[in-house]
Amino acid sequence: MAERLLEVDELQVSFVTEDGVVRAVDGVSFSLDRGEVVAIVGESGSGKSVTAMTLMGLTRGPNSRFGGSAKLHGQELVTASEDKLRRIRGEEIAMIFQDPISSLSPVHRIGDQIVEQIRAHEKVSKAAALDRTVQLMERVGIPRAAERARAYPHEFSGGMRQRAMIAMALVNEPKLLIADEPTTALDVTVQAQILALLERLQRELGMAIVIITHDLGVVAEMADDIAVMYAGRIVETASARHMFASPEHPYTWGLLKSIPHLAGGREEELTPIPGTPPSLIHRPSGCHFHPRCPYAQPDHARIDPQLEPVADEPHHHAACLLESQLRRRLWAELGSGCTPEQAREAVGLPAPPPHPERHAPAATAAGEPSGPVPEVGL
Amino acid sequence: MSAIEPVSQPAPSPGSAEPLVQVRGLVKHFPLTRGLLIQRKVGAVQAVDGVSFDVRRGETLGIVGETGCGKSTTARLIMRLLDPTAGEVRFEGQDITALTGSRLKAIRREMQMIFQDPYSSLNPRKTIGATIAQPFVIHGLLEGKDERKRAVQELMETVGLNPEHYNRYPHEFSGGQRQRIGVARALALKPKLLIADEPVSALDVSIQAQVLNLLRDMQRQLGLTLVFIAHDLSVVRHMCDRVAVMYLGRIVEIGPGDALYDFPRHPYTGALLSAVPVADPTLRADDRELLSGDVPSPANPPKACRFHTRCPKAQELCSIEDPPLEDKGTGTEAACHFPLSREEVAEIGVRSAR
Asked: pTM higher than 0.90 for the full model?
């Protein structure tokens, strides 16, 4: 029986700025069992990193406002005191970041930084902590660890720095590791090494991982479950298998149809999502995706869709105002190579009401007449 | 069909199959110096070290490789933004490595570049109209103000920007739109060659596809020759007719995209392709072979075959004799003594074959 580790319920995070209130995370709910890997996917400004950082208490500040709850083993994280949070951080949750060079101190030796991390949570001698450090560095695959512990971060390559970060995160054998774009800054062969390392550690330590990424390849490689975020909300959650085989949200379709495949070829056509992600200060009304959605209907600008279970798939949820059956027919059409317009016609869905965001810029999807249709400026 | 042909070529005749760009034995070493007042040369970063290839008219040539492999330096050498240490770059048969002054300027009209970062490659204090018009100013074309404005607005329309936004500043545009501005500026002089250096790697997934489609359409409409530099192997496959794989300043494999992705012969190409995470959980590779270690420093690259320190197939020969780039009989040319076999390609989990 899987043990529930993390329960996030209607989490809300907003930041008060001079320009207005940024609703970075707006009612996000998900849960994670022990040893499970969940991926949060989204584009820049979707709120994925803010969600993760809030779990670590890293978004607190005079202008931050929080709502909802996030419980780790029943302990509330959102309202936890700083002292309590400091203990939880490191001991129970650890985080690794995209850019290890800016997360490591440039003036301290790598080994000393890990030693400090150990001694911050445990009363052990320096020598004992150094022994542990070397073991940890070996565990994450840093060769000649005893020697390399004396090196400074700039003497490490990007991949080795990320390994050092992971070693530091493992100090207290956390139950949950949050990895925020852990491989985005790395080359592809090094990325594969780091992903393999995370997978091995997750297996060996029974550690749960929340991986934040925009890379659908990384997601497919790593995750048990996936949550897709758009404009501060989760718009779809499913198991990795379902998400890629039968996605239900038009935004997810858009993402999947925008990426070229390694086994594709010159003939493969990409269908970009028109427009740009919205500002989190002035979010569109109704369904936040409606200005860019090729299947939007007039009332989608009014009604705010809720995350609801999808027919016949209890663990699959989507926040879309289209009928589930209709969505499946649309995806079937898209899967057979149709453009969104052709899919819409095939299922008899009326064209969406005009919206400046949706005007496909001239010269996009080949095959369409590329008339000079202006795109809006912002 | 060899990509490296003898250098001696007759003078270009219009309509001939002569490649647009011929790169021969191109070398770029950046000196490493020590000392503050009296600088002594203590070594060199061998960024590009003996690269030869052709760019054929109307094709898209992809250059892939990891950080520090020399792909961007190669692009800058073709553009003459850097002066080569040795070797030559022929553009329409003319060696451009020795050109100066007005003759260099004339050649530069024919080749344009699009950069990775649409934030730092646009002047924040210039309107985008002025930015796109800059090539006309530099080359003294379309002197009339109205004429210039009309040309700029036409360009904006071609790349999918609203021509009315002529007087806006870069910060008013999103990343994808800025990249369109970069494309418009690059197309202003109707160049024959467009070099795109990581044009989409700073963009969000949904925006990437917009810019990729734009580049493909521009190429089809204008018959452009495109050199496309990227580290994302899926994007390169989508965009390119032919692909060159670089490692530590050398080309290790080059050939048509289909052949190279279907049957990579160089173990490095194989390793790259097997390392790409594939957006399909049913193809999850649990026991693929990983390349160990990091790319060695280009200041001190391994002797002979530069990949032998990381190569799973390396033998003694590989550290003694430098393998030449030669036709391996399956469509690509590879620089390897012990090229991969079909079985090995399947074993290492290359998931690019169709």
From this structure: no
